[in-house]
Design brief:
alpha/beta; Rossmann fold
Length: 249
């Protein structure tokens, strides 16, 4: 008896356009790669022209734009230059950790307002361009849910983003809005934050996480594509941390 052929699945994003804000490395680049593999056209943005050009060539992006996503004028101008799109994934930004005694209040202010305000701006400028069934996807985190020394700013931001996501989902409906909350993800950003402590952190997570491995950008990208394609999902926060919240440290 011969084996039955495996059914061929149609690409889930065929004919759609995915915009990745912060798509030149890490989670953004991996999401662009995953979306492209599912048939999407991808538009990448980033702050560094050379790195963005390499990323665009790697995934076959249809276009790119170089700007800082926290510059709201540039962000508005970017979306004004687009036509109809289907999904926007925003990964730009980095967390700010500091004890109160050593805190730079200018950096703390940016850490508290930049990410939420960027979310508001993306929702205002992008939502009118998004076709029915499309979504705005934002990145948050799970680490700030656990209070600790040096976690005040990131903890406040972590608490704010799910509420902001839910409210935006109501206001810009029928465009969907969702938040991905990641724990440690093995990316160039994590490497820049941890420096020489990176390998030790990887080893600790392999020993302690319930999944017995470190979460990578592809894990987050797969969730992002699922949120793009499942049109029943909006206004919610989805954790991807390998069970990091379930163990001490």
């Amino acid at each position: 008896m011969s084996a039955e052929p495996t059914p061929v699945r149609d690409p889930r994003l065929l004919g759609q356009t995915v915009v990745v804000i912060g798509g030149s490395a890490g989670i953004g680049l991996e999401t662009a790669r995953a979306a492209r593999a599912e048939g999407a056209d991808v538009v990448l943005t980033g702050r560094t022209p050379d790195r963005l050009a390499r990323a665009a060539a790697e995934v076959g992006a249809v276009s790119t734009a170089t700007f800082d996503a926290h510059d709201l004028g540039d962000l508005e101008g970017f979306f004004e230059g687009l036509q109809a799109i289907d999904h926007v994934m925003v990964t730009a930004g980095r967390p700010y950790y500091s004890t109160l005694a050593e805190m730079d209040f200018d950096q703390a202010r940016r850490g508290l307002y930049e990410h939420p305000v960027m979310m508001l701006a993306v929702a205002r400028y992008a939502a009118p361009l998004v076709r029915p069934g499309g979504t705005l996807l934002f990145m948050g985190g799970t680490g700030g849910r656990r209070p600790g020394v040096g976690m005040a700013v990131i903890g406040a931001a972590t608490a704010a983003l799910p509420a902001l996501t839910a409210n935006l989902a109501v206001e810009v409906a029928p465009v969907r809005v969702n938040l991905i909350a990641a724990g440690f993800v093995d990316t160039p950003l994590s490497a820049s934050l941890l420096g020489e402590k990176l390998d030790a952190r990887r080893g600790q997570l392999r020993e302690t996480l319930p999944i017995a491995r470190v979460v990578g950008p592809a894990d987050v990208a797969e969730l992002a594509v699922h949120l793009m394609t499942n049109t029943a999902l909006t206004g919610a926060t989805y954790d991807v941390d390998g069970g990091q919240q379930l163990v001490p440290g």
